[in-house]
Amino acid sequence: MKPPLQDLLASRLSLLKPSPTLLLAARARELKMQGIDVLDFSGGEPDFDTPDPIKHAAIQALEEGFTKYTAVGGIPELKEAIKEKFLRDQGLEFHPRSIVVSNGAKHSLFQIFQVLVNPGDQVLLPTPAWVSYPDQILLNQGDPVFINCREEDGFRIDPDALREILTPRTKILVLNSPNNPTGAIIDKKRLERIGEIVLQNNLLVISDEIYEKINYSNDPVPSIATIDKSVGDRTIIVNGVSKTYAMTGWRIGYAAGPREIMEAIDAVQSQTSSNPNSIAQKAAVFAIRSGEQYFEPMLAEYRRRRDWVVGAFNHIKGIRCIAPEGAFYVFPNISGLLGHSYKGVPIQTAYELAEFFLDVARVAMVPGTPFGSPVHMRMSYAASLSSLQEGLKRIADAVSLLE
Ligand SMILES: Cc1ncc(COP(=O)(O)O)c(C=O)c1O
Predict the structure, then answer these.
(1) CA 48, CA 319: separation in Å to the nearest integer?
(2) Predicted confidence (pLDDT) per residue in 177-218, tens digit
(3) Whole-structure pTM over 0.70, yes or no?
(4) Is residue 104 lining ligand 1, measured as CB closer than 6 Å?
(5) How far is the CA of 240 from the centre of ligand 1 (A)?
(6) Where do the domains of the chain lie, and which CATH numbers do they carry?
């Protein structure tokens, strides 16, 4: 008898979990298709449309017939725009061959793990962390090692905890500032201490700066690459246009770092996806060169929503919520609700609470568990203020039903 096709899948696939954020969004979509009015705050993308002038740059590229293969790691014009951006925003200088443009920051990250991780290498992941990192590390046969960042520290990484967890197998540290899901920004002082540990232990750093521009503090978000040249020489920065310019569907992300590593990434990409979409690359050139004019109005709106949502959560008994410094998520602590019951059925976990909110409040939020915290939930406020207001009202009403 033939084995079922499922059994023929490569064994590494058993490590892969479907994205919990996408799963919840799928359930919310299902309910919506049944005509049920669900407010979905589970996703991770701007609710704004891509600004028109950026779209027009793509239309122009199409009309000019810019529809063929391009250089694998990005067209020279886009690499030049990225190079200028690094210099303008962070004072960092990169040779175009030290930059690789890929199909989104997620793709950049996967390829970085692919060229750096040997079986059994440990990759340090401060948590709460974006759900895709552990799976990407596992798929590349690495061991994700979690460092808990405490809410009392504003979810910022504690350099002493980092030092304590190191072993001879530790190779890479992943930083994500501003962070998804907490919005925490790692301050310069901490980065300096982390930089010392990196140098003392010959670590490599992956600095995921995709939310760099969604920053509510008065200062630019500091990057570990700018702390000191020798730390910069061990850092690969990941960024992209998805979040800043509301261009999630265009799939343009990029990485910049040491030439040897970036050339290896270019080689992997040349055998897998080849160049990112030619038309989207032209749009990205326009977006990156446009400076602040398109994202500033969006940032002002995110800030307004953040302030409102944080205040509203803190008015609900059993929930407390710190104000995130960046990105477009809140990460309220729901420990005060766990152990309560609805219609005699106890709610013990963040997953069960997410289901309760979906079933009773008709609001979709993601449990914090897959991000590394079982006592938080993530809500995206990349949604209109009126829908957030309605959503928070529904949550408050549902919580009032708990016994
Ligand atoms: C922390 C983090 N890094 C990377 C990405 C991926 O971004 P992209 O759309 O460019 O692939 C996301 C998207 O949710 C993210 O939250």
Answers:
(1) 28
(2) 999 999 999 999 999 999 999 999 999 999 999 999 999 999
(3) yes
(4) yes
(5) 8
(6) 5-49+295-400 (3.90.1150.10), 52-289 (3.40.640.10)
